[in-house]
Write the structure tokens for this entry.
Amino acid sequence: MAEKVTLQDHQLERKIVLSRLIVGGIISFLLILLLFARVFYLQVSQFEYYSTKSDSNRIRIQSIVPTRGLIYDRNGVLLAENIPSFTLSLVREYAGDIDQAVDIIASLISLTEDDVDKFRTRLRNRSVPFSAVPVRYNLSEEEIARISVNQYRLPGVSVDAELVRYYPEGEYFAHTVGYLGSITEDELKRLDPVNYSGTHQIGKMGVEKYYEDILHGTVGYETVEKNTHGQVMKVLDRTDPVSGQDIVLHLDSSLQKAAVEALGDYRGAVVALDPHTGGVLALVSKPAFDPNLFVQGISRNEFARLNDPVKTPMFNRALAKYAPGSTFKPFLGLAALNYGLRTWEQTVSDPGYYILENEEHVYHDWTWWINETGHDQVNLQEAIFQSCDVYFYDLAVDMGIDRMHDFLFRFGFGRNTTVDLPDASTGTLPSRQWKIETFGQNWYPGDTLNSSIGQGFTQATPMQLATATLLMANKGQWMKPGILKQIGLEGAPISPNRSLPDIELVDPADWDFMHESMAMVVHKGSGGYRNTGTAYPYIAMERAMPYRMAGKSGTAQVVGMPEDFDNDAEVPEQYRDHALFISFAPVENPQIALAVFVEHGEGGSSVAGPIAREVIDAYLLEDGQLKPEFIFPQISEEEATDTEASTVSGDAVAGVVRESQLVTINE
Amino acid sequence: MNSQDFVRQMGFLGQDLGRRKSFWETFHIDFPLLVALMILLGFGLMVLYSATDGSLPQMQRQIAFIIASFFIMLAVAQVDVRILRLWAPWMYLGTMGLLIAVKFVGSTGGGAQRWLDLPLLPRFQPSEIMKVVLPLCIAGYFSRRAIPPRFKHVFWSLVLVMLPAALISIQPDLGTALLIAVSGLFVLLLAGIRWKLVFSFIGVAILSSPALWLFYMSDYQKQRIKTLLNPQSDPLGAGWNIIQSQTAIGSGGVNGKGWLNGVQSRLDFLPEGQTDFIVAVLAEEFGLVGMLFLLILYMAIIGRGLYIAAMARDTFSRLLAGSIILTFFVYVFVNIGMVSGILPVVGVPLPMVSLGGTAILTLMVGFGILMSIHTHNKSLIP
């Protein structure tokens, strides 16, 4: 039956299947046309779109960070360099579970809690997505090997070689050279986004901050092809970065260290300037901190330690304002001479205290607190080397605060006259107008008295005191203090505008007079109790000096002691007076001007004075003798060898001669 | 009529030598189909070389499979389809047995139980065998019955189609199950099942699709359909493949980026660039020109297949040849449609091009059957 049907319907069946094949063929053809239309749409109509998309898929422009310029001291000693370091970094977007990744890393290499803490801080603070966040720095070879063996377990984790900032001198230059730290979001807003596209650290303090533009350099670029895992497959184009420029500072590394050592365990500051150039030879603030801590991201514990409210290691005392105390007296003395209010010879009677007309308050001389006496009859010179307060009270009343202000302003007080230390305080140089503007109060005669001995409203920074001392040494010729000496080790010294209107005295001989008076502070030791320089017993008495040094001490009250305070009792540290000492040397041919500030050091002459001598010794002397380049007057080599042994006595004789001349004047 | 066709096939040889068989006929090879297949395979190997980044082991394996498949195709071509027709029910039963065995003793890989490890045989997927056997079986079924088929024959043939499809879909391998069902359904269509019936099936399928969505489809399948409609909804997840493959195709432009210069796959942006998404590599490197060439090759093969089906000597051969070639078309359409973003992502390789030997082997067996149909003595009617 079936056989028969098949035979009978053969043609019909063929027709049926053929017609269906034709339908199938047509549909297939149409659908293939549809595919072609789709491909045509993608490849022709949408070509631009997909082509761009494909390129942006793979082509990335990445920046090449320029090498940061090095920082040298005046003798070519490296203060900041770049050292290679292997860093383990992690890209959050690729890493998956951060906690798990950290656990795995900790199982492979040493990772302290501190490291993890720092890493999490950096992770929180990162400003650019898909950026590699450092987990640990300074990997050893073995640690690098362990990481690479386990790379498959650590997506988004990589070991990168990079140059990191290193400060070989550590704490010594913390405040001066400063340090690099991570760029914060605020800083990011004002930085050039292009030039800083690859940089993640920026100068935060000192030279690193001020000369950021010179040190940073110009970013380079690399156009690279990356695969889907972010690995670079091919470099398509490259523009090399321009390294930052090296800079040379006026700082003298050995002098800086000597100043730090001289301060010993005291907190305080030393600022030393080169009178010829205004160059900052040393700028010390103690206690300091290790700037290297910041480069690798500081932990919270360490940061808390640096913010100790008493020690304040981050605080730059050299640029902060304090009451200058009696260090003001030489400048005021010059003012009195210049305004014609006093002559050298004129004397004042000092019973140990001073009383203003119509006032009950008694202004005591510092001697009063020792033996309830004064300095008796004193002239200006005696008032300087004995540091007589009453002489200056009397002088100040005649001068008035505004004239005092105008004269001292010319010495750089009340303003920041540095070239490249924008963070320096301007201090406070009071005047009538200043008091009305600041407190809305009138000026009282008592305020003038306090100002005359560097107390009351008057405040100055160690940098300002050093600057004024430089002017004293230079006889009024301005040299604004600056740190930068030159750009590049071979470069020519830069010459920024260091001038301000020079100070010209009516009688230029007053400079010499004041130099001698200040030399007596240190050297006058022949005259018994009333005739000895305040600093002589502490500086020159014990150890002979191969040069003459001019100085003035200052002991500034931190708080007013209550009337009933027992003067023999020990004063708690935080109430002890600040000790200051300004000086320059050699007197005849000044090579260094400096200010020493010792926080709660109590004795300007006894504590700050010896520190000043140690610093000056470190700068001027070599094997106990004056360095040849500092010998004055310039003598030929023959003479130098002949007179080398007698230099000391020769200088001493010169001093004596001048002293006798002055004595003659006094009489 | 048949003999006229035969003579025409023989070309000038046929005119000159009459009944004498040509070299090609002696060895049961269809020359035009062979040429098209060789060009396609060669082109495919070129693309694969680029897609695998010149991986020698993978290339060697693929070439070995192609050569083996070529000889198996020739071997199959020597077998008269009448013999296959006789064996068809038994092959169907045997393959069903293997599919059931997979369910119980099959080995698992990639989350699905698809493979069988039988002693003395390499590991294989019985579903691959079913791709060949099912059209054979259904064509055989209808060749013994009058067409257009009666309703009860349609019903039983549907049962024959659905049983293996169901077994394969629970492995699970929905893509293969659907394609196997399609190859069986093509036989029904070619056998003259009424259009009314066809359209009512399609209507029922459309109406039941919401129910399928709600009750039958798994989450990943739903995701694939959502992704088709809006790839940007999850550009780094489910939409990644389709976005990257369209980017690869589109960025190729008219002339392409040149052989071995396609960046999308070389930089690993394009997943599965060697297997299911290989056409994106081709389109990126050879551009619209390359795609046109590929589609013309496929059309030539499909056209030749349809021609062979139309010229076949009996209903069984016509149904079988038609089903084989239309199924081949479906592979092409589904794969390129999926990669170019007009169909949801289903795991269908690009026929003859994608990496994977067994897929090529199965297809070549199909082409062997086509050649057998075209070259065996047509004057003898069973």
Summary: The mean pLDDT of chain B is 86. Chain B touches chain A through 54 residues (CB under 8 Å).
